[in-house]
Amino acid sequence: MKIAPSILSADFGKLADEVKAVCDGGADLIHVDVMDGHFVPNMTMGPMIVEAVAKVSTKPLDIHFMVENIPFFVDMYKHLNPEFISFHIEEEKHINRVIQKIRNEGIRPAVVLNPATPVCLLEYIVSDVDMVLLMSVNPGFGGQKFIPSVIDKIKELRELAEKKNPNLLIEVDGGVNNKNAPLLKEAGADILVAGSYVFKSGDYKKAIESLRV
Ligand code: DX5
Ligand code: ZN
Asked: What class of enzyme is it (predicted)?
């Protein structure tokens, strides 16, 4: 199981130290939540802040766009060379085109589903992406309560991936903690995003290890 701490719950007053601390604490990826105040009712990090994060991070970036006008955002953040860029299919009319745009930049493309968006919408996309991110809260804020129906969605997606893309990575984001991590693993998740669980803990290394079930 790989762990991607979400820096949304970090102390932004000392962001560089926070990023270094989770990298040293065993993070596999740094999850960066980009929100535009339109797709979700919150705003977070522009490219200049993410550039500062990229500079100090010893781990690859996993950028999660919660934005409208996704191609514009891809162009604004692509020079940061993230490992993954993920975008919400609820927002995009031309999903395959945006997947290809991300891949053309040498970045691994991923799509995101909100909790109420069904897995069946991925039938003709799943073979074109490297990862699917399943939201286990409604996007916009850290510290929300885990929505358990994601467990069935992981299983359903794993079955679809077995047929269409056996290398697909499944990432889960929202309300992840040491109680639900074993259930997420058992259902078929590969990467867990955790914001408040890691950053509100006193010991980042211990928190990250406790998720690596
Ligand atoms: C929510 C973000 C998450 C958030 C998770 O919209 O996509 O990445 O930071 O935070 P927790 O782990 O506190 O739910
Ligand atoms: Zn996220």
From this structure: isomerase
